[in-house]
Amino acid sequence: MRGVILQGSSKSNGNTNKITLFIKERTGFDIIDLKSKNIGPFDYDFKNRDDDFLPTIKEIVENYDTLIFATPVYWYAMSGIMKNFMDRITDCIKVEKTTGRKLAGKKMGMISCGSGSELKEGFTMPFIESAHYLGMEYLGDIHTWIEDENIPKQLQSDINVFISEKIKREGKPKH
Ligand SMILES: Cc1cc2nc3c(=O)[nH]c(=O)nc-3n(C[C@H](O)[C@H](O)[C@H](O)COP(=O)(O)O)c2cc1C
After folding, report:
1. What is the 3-state secondary structure (H, E, C) of 27-49?
2. Where is the NADPH-dependent FMN reductase-like domain (predicted)?
3. 114 ligand 1 Cβ < 6 A
4. Is the CB of 151 inside a 6 Å radius of any atom of ligand 1?
5. N vs C: which end of the chain shows fewer Cβ within 10 Å?
6. Residues 18-70: pLDDT tens digits?
7. Is 117 in the pocket of ligand 1 (CB under 6 A)?
8. Which neighbouring-strand residues pair with 168?
9. Which residue has a Cα nearest atom 29 of ligand 1?
10. What's the gap in Å between 114 CA and the centre of ligand 1?
């Protein structure tokens, strides 16, 4: 099975996308742009059950064993698009249980993209704890940013190390 980058930015071709494309090039992972999907917030009466969430999560669990959550930093936290997606995983625990169970045993990584090198403490916690809760293996995370429209050189090399040591432990990154 393959890997997929779940891109949670409010701009399909923004800064987070620059990072996801860089990672796709080095891993061969697919990208799912969550902004292009119609995924509503969690609803206790599951009123959004006919939107794009279920087909999207089914596509993910059937085709991929490594899920990389790529989110911009908006107000010190993951984006709303990413949070909606995470909240909707609850649909898989309460209703679509067969799909939910298939998340167990898969791997999760996380990439944040902010305005600079600083990431406030606690940002990664929801990903780490959600992975544990879902029985997924947490591979690790890396914080990224864009300077003058580009990924800074040192960060490029840090991302390459992250890929080879955490994400694609069996393979070497292309340079
Ligand atoms: C609504 C909003 C909130 C933001 N809040 C933060 C923040 O708390 N910390 C930070 O470092 N950058 C913040 N930024 C800057 C973005 O994280 C940064 O520009 C990022 O690279 C944007 O990625 P994108 O183009 O994929 O949206 C914010 C940007 C927006 C639009």
Report:
1. HCCEEEEHHHCCCCCCCCCCCCC
2. 1-118
3. yes
4. no
5. C
6. 999 999 999 999 999 999 999 999 999 999 999 999 999 999 999 999 999 99
7. no
8. none
9. 74
10. 5
User: Is residue 4 a contact partner of residue 30, using CB atoms and an 8 Å limit?
Assistant: yes
Nearest to 140 by CA among 158, 152, 154: 158
Q: Which residues pair with 2 in a beta bridge?
A: 64
Does ligand 1 have an atom closer than 6 angstroms to the CB of 73?
yes
The whole-number pLDDT of residue 169 equals 74
CB contact at 8 A, 16 and 7 = yes
Is it true that domain 2-167 has CATH number 3.40.50.360?
Answer: yes
Place of tokens 């800064």: 15
Give the per-residue pLDDT at 114: 98
Nearest CA to ligand 1 atom 28: 74
- Distance (Å) from CA 10 to ligand 1 centroid: 10
Residues 6+ apart with CB under 8 A from 45: none
Collapsing DSSP to helix, strand or coil, 112 comes out as strand
- The two structure tokens encoding residue 93: 């625990």
Q: How far is CA 113 from CA 47, 104, 151, in A?
A: 32, 26, 11
Q: Where are the domains of the chain?
A: 2-167
